[in-house]
Design brief:
Layout lengths: L1 E6 L4 H9 L4 H4 L4 E7 L2 E9 L5 E5 L2 E5 L5 E3 L3 E8 L2 H10 L5 E5 L6 H4 L8 E5 L4 H12 L4 E3 L10 H10 L14
Parallel strand pairs: 7-8, 7-9, 9-10
Antiparallel strand pairs: 1-2, 2-3, 3-4, 4-5, 6-8
């Protein structure tokens, strides 16, 4: 995989994808970019969310992946004692759309596999709002947080019975269920 370019999000297909996910460009512009990349001889593009190691989380209607290295994404807020913890960036963006007044520190895991390495650094926070998915993996990750003795508030009831914050947002805005993404890739 080779990174070709990074620019502001303006491609109509990516803007439509954001809209289908309940988000507007203004919700995403401070955080997302349009990333062009090459795999073998084919070029693709996706929404890109930067991580703390210089990699990118990539999403489009047909692809969910990462331009390595894989790492968490940290967004500093105005309250460095309170943290909101998300599995993915669509949930982070959705929560910010639903609660624009909240400006706490946020960590987007980008993979639940990164949680064990992160846990020691979370003890610096006096309150952690866990906004993980309403599924078995989210249950296990939430249990890990509690077992580590962290000051965790499980926020998943706020968007139950939906799987995650983004699905809740889409339901709230459009009144219909989100369909699973197709598995094709966008070509340039």
């Amino acid at each position: 995989m080779e990174l070709i370019s990074v620019q502001a999000v303006k491609h109509p297909k990516l803007l439509l994808y954001l809209t289908e996910r309940g988000l507007q460009p203004s919700d995403a512009s401070p955080f997302l970019s349009e990333v062009y990349y090459r795999v073998s001889e084919k070029c693709f593009f996706a929404l890109g969310f930067p991580n703390d190691a210089g990699g990118w989380e990539l999403r489009n209607p047909y692809f969910k992946g990462c331009f390595a290295p894989k790492a968490i994404s940290t967004i500093k807020g105005t309250d460095s004692h309170k943290l909101q913890l998300f599995e993915g960036f669509m949930d982070f963006l959705s929560w910010r759309k639903l609660h624009p007044e909240v400006q706490d520190d946020s960590i987007i895991l980008n993979s639940l596999n990164l949680l064990p390495k992160l846990i020691p650094s979370l003890h610096a926070y006096t309150m952690i709002e866990s906004l993980l998915d309403n599924d078995e993996a989210g249950d296990r990750a939430t249990k890990q947080l509690f077992d580590a003795g962290l000051p965790v508030k499980d926020m998943r009831a706020c968007y139950a019975p939906y799987k995650d914050v983004n699905e809740y947002l889409v339901q709230r805005l459009q009144g219909k269920k989100i369909s699973p993404p197709r598995k094709r890739r966008l070509h340039r």
